[in-house]
């Protein structure tokens, strides 16, 4: 296509040379000389940056697609939207993990309360009682020709006397040791023992020993809470809880060919096993009220016996008296009534018929005779010959007991002052 020249539009008069300027006649043409689109006769020109005529500034040019400076509103919306997205994502992931782990089920119960610190436990609580008594309980080990026997014991004096059972130290070679609740050990010597009361005393040399606090076994009642502490089955520092389930349960114990032991025991359902022997039975205030000694079991002869909730402890009043005798004289005194009973009478009302009355003995002095039927001692019914021996040994020599008896068809009461045997 041939190039077209730019000239006046048809119908527009061409300005005459030196003639009047149309701009002078109309405002429309006031800037026509600078606008080639209004003045067809004006010469065209292309302005190149950097070549602007002096004294003039180019019109600023902006790109509508260029990013602008963010506003305050935009700045506030960004973190809000980010937080919403993060929360939504976190909640979705948490729910997925909870359902997968089985935690999506309903939460049962209230929030758990903070467990009390050991120092905050009340002294009368079971934990408080155990905390106080455990440092005074030891494991007793005695060497014998057949090996080593093991039982429990407790510190009775600050200078190291330890109470345990006679059957724990019986047959020993004289070498013994104790293990304290912190695991430390110390050698011990046997001070003395009494087979018939099943009480023995050993002595250990160690500073800072803490003796137990003794209670009153005569003040116990059936239903009182008790703790048994010791080393059952070699498990040191074991504490079991129960109640006093019976009092004055007369016991006759002993191994075949060995001494026969008699005592009116405290019966408890606290779990007691082999190794508890010689350990303390303590009341709810942490005072020792008995010495754990015997258990009942359903196993056959020669089999290993275990706990079935029937355990028996020597009353601490009796054990203390025997211990003091052993420490003071090396042997214990036995309390006697000066009479021997046959088996049960088999008649209504029960009782024990006296087969022998020692001349000038306590029973003789109280007027009892052979053939009299002993019904009760201090209100405790007599049904077996063991009852008379065991119950009498519960009391100290010199104690006065009330004996209810029957002579013929008449019931009578008498006071008997018990005595120590001549052994």
TrEMBL record:
One of its GO terms (biological process) is proteolysis. SUPFAM superfamilies: PDZ domain-like, Trypsin-like serine proteases. InterPro entries: Chloro_Bact_Ser_Proteases, PDZ, PDZ_sf, Peptidase_S1_PA, Peptidase_S1C. Gene3D superfamilies: 2.30.42.10, 2.40.10.120. Residues 1-27 have a biased composition (Low complexity). The chain crosses the membrane at residues 75-98. The keyword Flavoprotein does not apply. One of its GO terms (molecular function) is peptidase activity. It is an enzyme of class 3 (hydrolase). It comes from the Bacteria. The keyword Cytoplasm does not apply. Residues 1-36 are annotated as: Disordered. Keywords: Hydrolase, Membrane, Protease, Transmembrane, Transmembrane helix. This is S1C family serine protease. It comes from Micromonospora parva.
